[in-house]
Design a protein that fits this description.
It contains 6 helices and 2 strands; from the N terminus they run αααααββα. The chain is mainly α. The longest helix is centred in the first third of the chain and has 17 residues.
Length: 109
């Protein structure tokens, strides 16, 4: 019994070491996105105004957005006329990107 308990504990520790915990989407937004898109997603920042960013609080804008397109934009960045409009966040996990897209959806008023 003792050997099996030790083996189970070792297995759980090794599994725990391989899991990474995703940061909350709100934290990712604050640290990576809010500078341009604004804390509330309205895009009312100096950078947001200059780049004519969409207002994610607008229900019409939200209706036009597709989850897969947002995920691609986050992971791959956005380029318009050969110029980088938004850098790629390829270091985010798929789980983080999915959570971030869901977080953006909560901004709709």
């Amino acid at each position: 019994m003792k050997k099996s308990s030790l083996a189970l504990a070792a297995l759980l520790l090794s599994l725990g070491a391989s899991f990474t915990f995703a940061a909350p989407a709100s934290e990712i937004w604050t640290n990576q996105c809010a500078k341009c898109h604004g804390a509330d997603g309205a895009g009312k920042t100096k950078v947001g105004a200059k780049m004519k960013l969409r207002d994610y609080t607008d229900a019409k804008v939200q209706a036009e957005l597709k989850d897969d397109a947002m995920a691609t934009a986050i992971k791959s960045g956005v380029t318009v006329d050969g110029k980088e409009k938004m850098k790629a966040y390829s270091d985010l996990s798929d789980a983080d990107v999915t959570a971030l897209v869901a977080y953006i959806r909560t901004m709709k008023k």
